[in-house]
Amino acid sequence: PFITLGLGETRKQRKKRAIHCSPGMRECCRQEFYVSFEEMGWDNWILVPRGFNANYCTGSCYGHILPVYHHTEVIQKVALLRKQRELSPCCAPTKMFDLSLLYYDKDENLFQENVSNMVVEECGCS
């Protein structure tokens, strides 16, 4: 037995969004950014962690970057046809993680809490 595959025309290749920024990178990517609770003056009530990599998204969404949503792709194509530059997609978080904190409340009770969406893990054009 054989499996026969019919291949249609090949699509133009587009780059997948990069996860980490590298020196000189201009496309949408995740830039590491460390937040120190001591630097913020919060080290007297947040015990653990002492800080964390919050990260942020930066870079251009022009060119051959694969949009995160179909909506973005449609808007981008129509904006190009209409020459409306203000409708360009933005580099923004697409995946985030929670941050677990051990801290004292105002009455000096010790608490552990997971704070939602504190760490940018991936970025994309949306």
From TrEMBL:
Signal peptide: none annotated. GO terms for cellular component: extracellular region. Residues 14-126 form the TGF-beta family profile domain. SMART domains: TGFB. Pfam families: TGF_beta. SUPFAM superfamilies: Cystine-knot cytokines. It comes from the Eukaryota. It is found in: Secreted. Its main location: secreted. Keywords: Disulfide bond, Growth factor, Secreted. Belongs to the TGF-beta family. PANTHER family: DAWDLE, ISOFORM A, TGF-BETA FAMILY. This is TGF-beta family profile domain-containing protein.
